[in-house]
């Protein structure tokens, strides 16, 4: 555990030296009524609190279990607003680090903020899991358009997205996609993301990416984001894996921080629920 924490601290200290400067992307201002109509047109996701808790999604309501994610939310939003950033990717070194759980908890935590609007898109197309985690199977036609069609401009966000409350929209994956890296290299993606931002005017877009070290999917998409958060699993992620992730990602975008997941301790710097704790390090520029 000490070596893993040292690696996280090293990655945090190195971010100022290696992170690429990311320019904020201006979005044309729109009257709020225009975006309100687009948000209200999205079908509302029907989420079951009992299922969410069973799947470790604990931020739909405020409480002690949600506190670590609320802290992560506050620091993430503050830092991104200071930098003028809006697009955040979340990845992990390898599978089973809990990146999708962290992403969804962060998204639902943001949704509790009355002044914030966020869009979360599941980009782990090889192994989509969010429909299962959220209990969304059957709430849309599984044979209809999905995230791949959205990214390439063959479907609109309204065709694939859900709304949860007034301020969170979700686009989750359907079936696994074998050619995910080809889709993520498609030149139409940039225009698609710009169109979504213009139509919905979110303060933040979150992208649940594939594990970095198992394919080139995540690296293919980094040109479209302002920053990235790495989720490492205690007793699973190695020092070497964290170092490699930090170096590779910092060559393409700004590394916002490292979240230590599945840690069996809690200190003044870490909050936790059950056997999970979360640590966060601001990127220094």
From TrEMBL:
Domain of life: Bacteria
Record's keyword annotation contains Nucleotide-binding: yes
Family annotation (CDD domains): BY-kinase (cd05387)
Keyword ATP-binding on entry: yes
Gene3D superfamilies: P-loop containing nucleotide triphosphate hydrolases
Keywords: ATP-binding, Nucleotide-binding
Region annotated Disordered, chain positions: 1-36
Bias (Polar residues): 11-21
Name by which UniProt lists this protein: Mrp family chromosome partitioning ATPase
């Amino acid at each position: 555990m000490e070596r893993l924490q040292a690696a996280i601290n090293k990655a945090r200290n190195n971010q100022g030296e290696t992170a690429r400067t990311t320019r904020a992307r201006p979005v044309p201002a729109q009257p709020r009524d225009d975006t309100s109509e687009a948000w209200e047109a999205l079908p509302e996701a029907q989420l079951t609190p009992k299922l969410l808790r069973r799947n470790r999604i604990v931020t739909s309501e405020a409480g002690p279990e949600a506190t670590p994610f609320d802290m992560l939310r506050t620091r993430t939003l503050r830092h991104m607003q200071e930098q003028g950033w809006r697009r955040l990717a979340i990845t992990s070194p390898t599978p089973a680090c809990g990146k999708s759980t962290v992403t969804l908890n962060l998204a639902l935590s943001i949704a509790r903020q009355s002044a914030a609007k966020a869009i979360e898109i599941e980009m782990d197309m090889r192994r989509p899991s969010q429909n299962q985690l959220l209990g969304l199977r059957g709430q849309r036609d599984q044979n209809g358009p999905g995230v791949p069609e959205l990214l390439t401009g063959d479907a609109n966000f309204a065709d694939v997205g859900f709304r949860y409350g007034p301020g969170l929209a979700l686009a989750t994956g359907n079936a696994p996609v074998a050619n995910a890296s080809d889709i993520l290299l498609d030149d139409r993606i940039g225009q698609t993301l710009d169109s979504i931002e213009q139509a919905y005017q979110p303060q933040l877009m979150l992208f649940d990416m594939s594990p970095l070290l198992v394919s080139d999917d995540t690296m293919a998409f980094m040109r479209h984001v302002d920053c990235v958060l790495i989720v490492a699993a205690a007793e699973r992620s190695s020092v070497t894996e964290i170092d490699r992730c930090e170096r590779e990602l910092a060559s393409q975008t700004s590394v916002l921080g490292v979240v230590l997941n599945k840690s069996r301790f809690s200190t003044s710097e870490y909050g936790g629920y059950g056997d999970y704790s979360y640590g966060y390090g601001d990127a220094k520029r």
